Amino acid sequence: MRASGPLDAESILSATEDVLRRHGPAKATVVDVGKELGVSHAAVYKHFPSKAALREAVSRRWLNRDRDALAAIAGDTEIPPPQRLRSWLAALLASKRAKAHDDPELFAAYKLLVTENSVAAIDHVADLLGQLELILTDGMAGGSFRRADPAQTAQAVFTATTRFHHPGLAAAWTEPGIEQELDVICALLLDGLR
User: CA-CA distance, 134 to 192, in Å (whole number)?
Assistant: First the structure.
């Protein structure tokens, strides 16, 4: 992938994804990204001040690919909040499982970022918690869920479902019956929220 026009952040991020897929997060370098684009690594550093900043930007871009689909479920007021919560959690599992299976090298980079407490990973979790809070707030306002602090309740639901979305537990996402296990957890959560 050679730069066809002026070098910009998007072309650098696309090239970085390609390099990460080929070499993995441990071996990919900024020099490799520059070679992929047909520019010097110094040209890459003009857009991203460090390898860590570049890795953060790639991870943020990659994580945000499914954000809109999840946000659409969270914000769909035509769906009753209990059903919306169940659908959102199922979509989150499907999204994470697809990322781990379909793009293992970038998933490995994300996993690495999670262990480093990266801003991209922290922002991703905050966004997911905000979506959960929206569903719970709607449910509390409409009487589907008992009144409680929506932010604390969102955190509790997120923690209770860690097995289905934490990258460190990705091996479990392909186990037979994982969807049924999520259904059981959802039933328990919904009973507790009513």
Answer: 18
How far is Cα 168 from Cα 22, in angstroms, rounded to an integer?
22
62-193 domain in CATH 2.60.40.10?
Answer: no
- Count the neighbouring beta carbons within 10 Å of the beta carbon of residue 148: 12
HSE-up of residue 62 (Cα within 13 Å, Cβ side):
31
Q: Where are the domains of the chain?
A: 9-49, 62-193
Query: CA torsion, points 23, 25, 29, 34, in degrees to nearest 10?
Result: 70
Q: Which two tokens stand for residue 47?
A: 């857009």
CB 105 within 8 A of CB 20: yes
pTM: 0.83
Task: Classify domain 9-49 at the CATH topology level.
Answer: Arc Repressor Mutant, subunit A (1.10.10)
Mutual orientation of helices 81-102 and 104-115 as an angle, nearest 10°?
110
Residue 40 CA: distances (Å) to CA of 45, 148, 179, 188, 189: 9, 55, 47, 55, 53
| The two three-digit tokens of residue 119, written as one number | 């801003």
Q: Tell me the pLDDT tens digit for each residue of 28-56.
A: 889 989 999 999 999 999 999 988 888 88
Considering only CA atoms, which of 33, 38, 27 is closest in space to residue 14? Answer: 33
